[in-house]
Amino acid sequence: MKKLFLSVFASLVVTANVCAQQWNMVITKTDGTTVNIPTASIHEVSFAEAPLEDANVDQLVIKELYNGGCPKDGSGAFQMDKGFIIYNNCSQQAIVNNLCFGIATPYNGHASNNNFTEDGDLVYEAEGFIPAQNGIWYYPGALVIEPFSQVVVSCMGSIDNTQTYSQSVNYANADYYCMYDPESGYNLTSYYPTPADVIPTSHYLKAVKYGQGTAWMLSMNSPAFFMFQIKDSEPEAYALDTDNHWYGVGEAQDDINRCIKVPVEWVIDGMEVFDATRLSDSKKRLTADVDAGYVTLTNKLGHTLYRNVDKEATEALAENAGKLVYNYALGVDNSTDPSGIDAEASVKQGAHIVYLDTNNSTADFHERQKFSIRGE
User: Fold this and answer.
1) Which residue from 293, 372, 367, 356 is spatially nearest to 334, judged by alpha carbons?
2) Distance from CA of residue 39 to its chain's centroid?
3) Tens digit of pLDDT for each residue in 80-101?
4) For tag attachment on the chain, is the N or C end more exposed, with fewer CB atoms within 10 Å?
């Protein structure tokens, strides 16, 4: 995936011949390539970067969430290698400005949660927002994702973790993105070691921390994770504006409990995750218009939550003829993709995948044996 804006620098060079001098403008792009333009053909030059307009933002989905960690090679579990994948679920380029990521309060689905009315509705549902706790991460500028393509984001441990834990994740990839912004206050080095050298700094997400702590606490067993787009404001300005702050019912109004109000119309996608061992104690945090259901996770085993394939839409794509691989077998127990299509194997055959998106995680996701970027 290409980084979307080009920082353009211009210089003049002289090329001589026996008749006259010809002046060329040399434009050097951030990827190192150059373009030579004769000045005679230039009538007006603007050095300002033209902003890219949003396109197909509603087609972005959370394809996969890996937050539960994996077994260590000895005993115990390693859980500082969390990450996720976002995906352009359509045949046209997607462009999104101010793409943000948040976690709804409380951190765990089975934690004490008093944010309900007597009728059992979430207290903020009527006001049309989701409370994002502690801080948010965002991509500065606009992010461009090509059709049926994905972006891998490391939440922490943006290195080759397999060098220490063989069942973990290797994020040392120039195409990957990472959450790394020590200046924000998220600077706990055990969570945020310096990213692998191959990850360009242009792929570092930035953060706005308005809560307590030195790490963004994505739950290891049951987060309510969502992505959204801040509109008509910059992420930092919106998140630090006290008019946008909110505190749970009965909670002290301090930095431990501080959330920001994210309007539901800004939410692009969200998923409610419950701990498979604590279902009876779990309560919803995302409103039904964001996620009407939930998906369960058994953590510490290297499992992920993977979006199911839209079988009908995927099979309807003419370019997929002869490329789809069936008999998917990477589900966990009774949790599997009902389409039967092995999405990752199909992509290797050149297929384009359309994923199911019903705004109901119970239907849209299943528990998968391992993170797809680890390969088969």
Assistant:
1) 367
2) 43
3) 999 999 999 999 999 999 999 9
4) C
Q: Which amino acid is at 75?
A: S
Alpha helices in 139-179 (DSSP H): none
Peptide bond preceding 195: is omega within 30 degrees of 0, i.e. cis? no
Place of tokens 């026996």: 18
Total residue count of the chain as it appears in this document: 376
Q: Which two tokens stand for residue 279?
A: 């279902």
Structure tokens at 51: 């902003």
For the chain, the farthest-separated pair of C-alpha atoms sits apart, in whole angstroms, at 89
- Measure the CA–CA gap between 67 and 64, rounded to whole angstroms: 10
226: closest CA among 128, 119, 137, 124?
Answer: 137
In the chain, what are the domain boundaries? 1-50, 57-308+355-374
| Whole-angstrom distance, CA of residue 270 vs CA of residue 272 | 7
Strand pairing report for 177-179 and 150-154: parallel
Percent over 90 (pLDDT), the chain: 85
- CA dist 202 and 183 (Å) reads 16
Q: Is the separation of the CB atoms in 267 and 62 below 8 Å?
A: no
**From CA 77, how far away is CA 75, in angstroms rounded?**
7
